[in-house]
């Protein structure tokens, strides 16, 4: 199980690094935009992301 978790975490880091590597200026602009979003909206976006990920895992597994 730990190996699969490490693989998943490693893949997440690779995917997260693609945008700043390819488009650093756009990434900076996106981070500035996200900094202006209120906490409630950010929490809802996080919840939706977690639910989508959980649903995808359920479908794949």
What does this protein look like?
It is built from three helices and no strands. The chain has a domain at 24-61. Helix content is 90%, strand content 0%. The radius of gyration is 15 Å and the shape is flat. The protein is an all-alpha fold.
* Fraction in helix: over 70%
Secondary structure tally, helices:
3
Shape: flat
The whole-number mean of residue pLDDT values reads: 93
Report the span from N to C terminus: 14 Å
Low-confidence stretches: none
Order of helices and strands: HHH
How many β strands by DSSP? 0
List the keywords.
90% helix; 3 helices; flat; single chain; 61 residues
Please provide a brief summary of the model.
The chain has 61 residues and is mainly α.
Question: What is the topology?
Answer:
Elements: H1 2-22, H2 24-35, H3 39-60
Helix pairs in contact: 1-2
């Amino acid at each position: 199980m730990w190996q699969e978790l490490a693989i998943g975490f490693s893949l997440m880091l690779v995917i997260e690094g693609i945008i700043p590597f390819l488009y650093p200026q756009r990434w900076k602009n996106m981070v500035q935009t996200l900094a202006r979003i209120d906490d409630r909206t950010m929490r809802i976006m996080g919840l939706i992301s977690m639910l989508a990920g959980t649903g995808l895992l359920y479908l794949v597994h």
